[in-house]
Amino acid sequence: MTNPRGREPERVPESDPSDLLTHATRGLRRRWAASLEPWGLAPHEARALRVISDSDGARLSDIAAHLRIAPRSATEVVDALQEKSLVERTPDPTDRRAVLAVPTDTGRALAEEIGAARLQVSRDYFSRLEPQEQDQLAALLHRLIAD
Q1: Which tens digits make up the pLDDT trace of 52-99?
Q2: CB contact at 8 A, 85 and 106
Q3: The domain that contains 114 carries what CATH number?
Q4: In this structure, what are the phi and psi dihedrals at residue 87, rounded to the nearest 5 degrees?
Q5: What are phi and psi of 101, to 5 degrees?
Q6: pLDDT confidence band for 10 (50 / 70 / 90)
Q7: 45, 111, 141, 147: least CB-packed within 10 angstroms?
Q8: How many domains is the chain partitioned into structurally?
């Protein structure tokens, strides 16, 4: 059986937890990326728009840190969002040398739509688990990522 993109599905690993987690994460990421297609955004653009909208404006260095990318890559992402009229650059009122990427009204509205779509993708993906299983999975993942 092939997936919607015409590729053969990945073989599901037998029992290695790291492989299982990677496989599950890839499945969720594929669904998330597919949900963005109607808006013509890549996942990294949607994530950047969320960072910018959530903070009502962000420096490029902050965007790079949130996305875990190089500052020059953040510049390219913001350039793409600006070309789509989703963000604009404005001087940082607290530092004249710095520039903020600020969401436009269109960008802010789109960030809300995308947030709702992301939540629906997540709900659909995890709906195969009972509510108590979802809670258990969340607890286990919290334990794994705790420092």
Answers
A1: 999 988 999 999 999 999 989 999 999 999 999 999 999 988 888 889
A2: yes
A3: 1.10.10.10
A4: -140, 165
A5: -95, 120
A6: low
A7: 147
A8: 1
Pick the closest to residue 38 from 132, 133, 114, 143 (CA basis).
Answer: 114
Residue 13 has pLDDT above 70, yes or no: no
* Cα 116 from Cα 104, distance rounded (Å): 18
User: Which residues span the domain enclosing 129?
Assistant: 39-145
CA-based nearest residue to 44, from 22, 21, 27, 66: 66
Q: Which amino acid does the sequence have at 34?
A: A
Residue 98 included in any domain: yes
Q: Is 88 helix (H, G, I), strand (E, B) or coil?
A: strand
Among candidates 24, 27, 25, which has minimal Cα distance to 4?
Answer: 27
